[in-house]
């Protein structure tokens, strides 16, 4: 290595952390571990958990230095009560992630009560053993701003979550939430992001939420057909819904697999930057409308019959070749930077003429060709 050339040299902090977790140093130097800065404590804890070298008694060694803990389901034997008892002794835990703890019972959350002043992010997705009684304990963690209880047995019918007035992000997707449970959501005035995908709510349920300043809303696989009237809404996901029309203020719209063929109403959504129309029934008749979306930067038309796009274009399994070649070719895509082509085995072949035409895409940086039959 040349003098002054530090390429390939690991940072000193990374060398030190790797040395700590390489052996059992961390087990015997308990005082040093307790005084680690939080970013280093989080790092060491994460590596040890990934290696499967921690049990609840060792987890307590990080109670003073770790602020983020993520424990996979494989760690939690039985109901995981011993792990949660150890976590309840942490002094400044801010983020807790317990994913897919299927046997986690509501009463096992009780030891987390001492974390109420500091815990800000609590993710319990797919903890399917949690029922409505879990809210008695979660509702006491009043500093939480980001809560994910998707895929649990919680419905929210008790309204206990209304106590978490600091919530800015809430994911209730794939829970037992129904329309009659939405009235208490209206009390979460600081909420900005809400996920209620795969629940039984419909259009009437959203009327209780129109006064909220939501910027992101996921309604995938719900009974909603009309985009809610929320001036602040920027990101709306209604995949597999029966959408009638969106709001003009949206910047992100996901309509994957929506039963829609005519999207001329999109012309009013002048702020759209991200649009996913994959799996819809739209065709070339929508091209003129899409060209009017001057703010659009990302567009997916995968599994459709449309030929137009902008900077990023996903044309997987779409019948675009017959329309593009030999004319007008790619002349209508001067800003295209990312292009993905994936053709059906029984579809048209990728000819030399089409490959040569790609030269006109002067800004193209990434090209993906999948299942593209090349002609001789």
UniProtKB/TrEMBL annotation:
Pfam families for this protein: LRR_1, LRR_8
Bilayer topology annotation: Single-pass type I membrane protein
Q: InterPro entries, alphabetically? A: Leu-rich_rpt, LRR_dom_sf, RLP23-like
Q: Give the record's keywords alphabetically.
A: Glycoprotein, Membrane, Signal, Transmembrane, Transmembrane helix
Q: Where does the UniProt annotation locate this protein?
A: Cytoplasm, Cytoskeleton, Cilium axoneme; Membrane
Cellular component GO terms held in the UniProt record: axoneme; membrane
Q: Does the keyword 4Fe-4S apply?
A: no
Q: Which domain of life is it from?
A: Eukaryota
Protein name in the entry: Uncharacterized protein
